[in-house]
Amino acid sequence: MEGILEPLLAVLALICTVIPHELAHGYVAFRLGDPTPALARRLTLNPLRHIDPVGSILVPGTLLLLRFLLHKNFPILGWAKPIPINPLYFRNPYLGLLWVGLAGPMANISIALLAAGLGHGVLALIPDPGAAGSWFLLFLSYLGLISLLIALFNLLPIPPLDGSRALAYFLPPEARRRYLSLERLGIPILLALLYLTPLLRLLFDGAWWLWRTIGFGF
Hints:
218 residues
């Protein structure tokens, strides 16, 4: 039971991270005048509205199964269905995309800070939390660590990640156009960087360092 419970907590933490990430994008876009997220009925925490069959079920489910069957510490990764937005509704489309792009990672960082605060609070009130408390603290650790990892990943300046939306705002118009045109190649470029370079390891190390800095031990 314990062997499957830990990765299940990681999957639950992943879901609790990717859904607010997408919701933050949609909410900021809506506040900037774009009705598209509301019309798509995506301004909700209802997970059924945000589940992506591949990113929310197939990928984490496969990794969970491999982790259980092979007894390997595969990272539990996944994503939610992107929220549709239309930047033409924004008064300044590129400035709007800057704020919408940063909203997701900022939501993840906020979740990590909340998880750290809750963990510190629990340990301050209950120094010996017992079995149930330990599982809860483990969930908070996964929640904080995965939130930071997703924030760092999405801040990479590679189209179509959120970091590219932020960087595009500061580029001259022609450079911005050429930069954003790379979006059709963004996923292959990203996959190549993740699997052929130490990028993924650096992202994990960075997220782990940040969580060790703000998190808790138990």
